[in-house]
Amino acid sequence: MEQFKGQPRLPKFAVPKRYDIRLKPDLSSCNFSGSVVIDVDVVADTRFLVLNTANLSVNTSSISFTSRNRTFQVFQLSKVEIFEDDEILVLEFEKSLPIGEGALAIEFDGILSDKMKGFYRSTYEHNGEKKSMAGTQFEPADARKCFPCWDEPAFKATFKITLDVPADLVALSNMPVTEEKVVGQLKTVSYKESPIMSTYLVAIVVGLFDYVEDHTSDGDKLYRYFATPYSLPKLDMVAIPDFAFKAMENYGLVTYRETALLYDDQHSAAANKQQVAIVVTHELAHQWFGNLVTMEWWTDLWLNEGFATWVCYLATDSLFPEWKIWTQFLDEFVEGLKLDGLEGSHPIEVEVKHASEIQEIFDAISYKKGASVIRMLQSYLGAECFQWSLGLYIERHASSNAKTEDLWAALEEGSGEPVNRCLGTYKDLYVKIDKWQSHFLASGSHGDGEWIVPITLCCGSYDNRKSVLLETRSTTLDIETRIGGEDDGTSAICSWIKLNIDQTGFYRVKYDEDLAARLRDAIENKYLSATDRFGILDDSFALCMARQQSLISLLTLMAAYWDDHDYTVLSNLIAISYRLERNAADAVPELLDFIKQFFISLFQESAEKLGWQPKAGESHLDAMLRGEVLTALAVFGHDPTLNEASRRFHVFLNDRNTPLLPPDLRKAAYVAVMQRTSAFERSGYESLLRVYRESDLSQEKTRVLSSLASCPDPNIILEVLNFLSSPEVRNQDAVLGLSVSREGRETAWTWMKFASTEKAEEIEEFFASRRRPSMARTLKQSIERVHINARWVQSVQTDEHLAEAVKQLAMQH
């Protein structure tokens, strides 16, 4: 049996075909009992069956294997062993199992833990009484915590589930109910057998639920796009109070954190509505990408998550075109670039050796870089060709598994383009205007590598476009310097050049000083699209943090956006301002007031244009922008904003339905209140706690939690941290309060926020004896980020011209 220890994958001499599972959860004692009969196909000579189990008490005397070849022969076990570190159950039989089908029967018991993994419990209040429910979260590898199974994506099977539950509760699973029998206070619920699927997509929910119901026709948007119908007879969507992620795409039973599904017209902000739309469409996209066609192993997780991220924008844009959601996609694009710029990053295909490593790759590379690469491919290949190729991919691999090369093959067949050669190992890079490429690293160094990159550019006008495949480290492209053809007096000189039109290419661009100055003029004169204005700003910020561009050059560029009112552009400008304010506080504290005043000047124009009160018929984007701009002004200490926010908040305290503080403004008001809270004047903090405790809406609670730690008083920050760890705050929500104010960083585990080499060394020393596979990659990335910030701080401190330039910018604006 020792030969099976330490192996990254289960052996394949036997494969499951069907599971017959029966579970009986006890919500009062927080445990469950169960049994499973697994139809197994023995495909190679073996005396062993090896499958996964974790945190289960397996009744070894109940285990039996019955061959179904000709006679129903029962095979005797000679040894049973559970290797806890590897989460495997090894069954050794007295003689070899016959090739062909057999049935493996096992009984077991388990704990309904509060860890939000496996089969777990969640709590809620109903009519003032605390109650429990049970739910499942099996992705990536926790079905084994509910029943013994072959818990890998490639081992697909069908599932027949039966539940014994309290008669007054709702019990849901992947498939519709076929039979329900009530005996006393218990009922037995049987479900239709599922189509073939992976174990991580099995789901069970037991609790007290209200519901709304509707039906869709076969003309569903995703059905039409993929040319393949949804393959199950129903799709339940359930909000669970305690939930580790935003949502989980379980086949036919999608589960959500409450904030990601529930929307209230009176108390949800426009941003909440958009979040719900994005998350729901993401999970529905998974019903095709992930559930119907499943990655063969977690190495190809991006096939699931990258496509679901891209498709959710496609679907949301179809439903709400006025949201301009593809411009907002740039937020995903930027997060992918940020992580990909670290030396501790990884390709979209990443080797996974052990189940403990899987969770770490649910990151911005798999989701956001994956989606960005897909967007780049669609732009390069053309929307129609790309859609047809995806349909071909789904048709070929439906109810089966696929790898990245299978997708490349379908795209190459549909387009005739060398997709695999272009994108097989695509990494973040930057392109200079002279058509030279280098692997971009946020540390400021240059990585090795050479990629085939689709380059687009326009010269002086979007009508004057060119494109080229950058196939080597450098190439030459002739640029027409005049618009209008002949130099006959009717043409115009090309006044600016923009690479990566609409930011469809997953790369950064570095311009020389002259071209950068021309682009600033183009931004001020509104010649560029919102996506291109966004891209120029974000590339400049990344290059500044990598010490390839000065801080004053970045601030000068930011000044060109002072009257930009596009939601996505201004939202990114705010995010960059937050980062710079934090780092500048360490680098040049004597200039901090000037920097804050400069940032305030950037946002005042939009704040005045939007005003405090929502306007009749205003856009969804204006509603979101108002909240973000006012929050930024509060963070940077704009007294008029702080005064008005505080006034409105105190009215709200006495009347939670007042029109003076609609949901879109509450975050700004909460932050403003905490900005003026201190150990000597704590009424604002106590009032916010009151709002938290009196609300039963998860979105309201998260707004409060994400505002509390903005207080500048370290003593209050300590109280906030203690509150976050109290039973009043759900485990999954505590992290929302950890983004503390600059003044509170030392109190809130200083190494997480400090930009100093000493702190990076302190982190490494602390974790030297605490490293685990499940956190190794994340820890390495975190330490790298601290070093990057530290080097940036040092470089800014040596800039002799910075002080005068910052003061001039602050006075000019």
UniProtKB/TrEMBL annotation:
Active site location: E283 (proton acceptor)
Alphabetical list of Pfam families matching this protein: ERAP1_C (PF11838), Peptidase_M1 (PF01433), Peptidase_M1_N (PF17900)
Co-factor: note: Binds 1 zinc ion per subunit.
Record: residues binding Zn(2+): H282, H286, E305
Subcellular location: Cytoplasm; Microsome membrane
GO biological process, one term: peptide catabolic process
Reactions the enzyme catalyzes: Release of an N-terminal amino acid, Xaa-|-Yaa- from a peptide, amide or arylamide. Xaa is preferably Ala, but may be most amino acids including Pro (slow action). When a terminal hydrophobic residue is followed by a prolyl residue, the two may be released as an intact Xaa-Pro dipeptide
Keyword Membrane in annotation: yes
E.C. numbers: 3.4.11.-
Domain of life: Eukaryota
Domain annotation Peptidase M1 membrane alanine aminopeptidase: ranges: 224-424
GO molecular function: alanyl aminopeptidase activity; metalloaminopeptidase activity; peptide binding; zinc ion binding
Residue stretches in coiled coil: none
UniProt site (Transition state stabilizer): Y367
Name the UniProt record assigns to this protein: Aminopeptidase
